[in-house]
Write a structure and sequence with these properties.
Elements (H helix, E strand, L loop, with lengths): L1 H9 L9 H6 L22 H30 L13 E5 L17 E12 L2 E4 L10 E3 L3 E3 L19
Antiparallel strand pairs: 1-2, 1-5, 2-3, 3-4
Length: 168
């Protein structure tokens, strides 16, 4: 197991473009013996203050690389995300997920959405309390991903919901 750990810590990470040994010790270990204080590289002869400054610089560089990578990842993940905000008293549709609405999901032919319900309260930008009847048997707070706004174009004559692809 120590050999596996050593090999893992020698691999270059995609976020930092450095291996964990390089981040912690300031040099890339080639073999386990490199971790002993032997004069294998010039950096082992550095004065303590120079070595501390070098390691601090490596840590700052690593932190910047991780922050840059996380910003890029967040930007790519949020590229197609729409921010949907509801106000109290707005009408919405609810997505009937199988894990929350077991009683309503007896057949795959039943609608995947139900509504119209009123928004009672905004908990935060991602969570809302809904005026949900007690026969649903679940909490009345929902994530915004399970909610869809009601538009005046939706008619009660149509048997589809925003969560269905076509007419039934």
């Amino acid at each position: 197991m120590p050999h596996v750990e050593f090999e893992y810590n020698r691999e270059v990470h995609s976020n930092t473009n450095m291996c964990p040994f390089e981040i912690v010790y300031g040099f890339k270990a080639i073999a386990p013996i490199d971790l002993l204080p032997l004069p294998l590289q010039e950096r082992t002869y550095m004065e303590a203050s120079k070595r501390a400054a070098y390691i601090t610089k490596v840590h700052e560089k690593t932190k910047e690389a991780i922050e840059l990578k996380s910003e890029r990842k967040a930007a790519s993940m949020n590229k197609h995300r729409k921010k949907v905000l509801f106000e109290p008293r707005n009408l919405i549709w609810i997505h009937l997920r199988k894990d929350l609405f077991r009683q309503q999901h007896k057949s795959k032919l039943l609608p995947r959405g139900d509504g119209l319900f009123r928004v009672l309260e905004k908990i935060n930008d991602n969570a809302y309390k809904i005026d949900l009847p007690t026969n649903y048997g679940t909490s009345n707070s929902f994530n915004v991903a399970d909610l869809s706004p009601f538009t005046s174009e939706d008619t009660s004559e149509s048997r589809t919901t925003p969560f269905q692809g076509g007419m039934i």
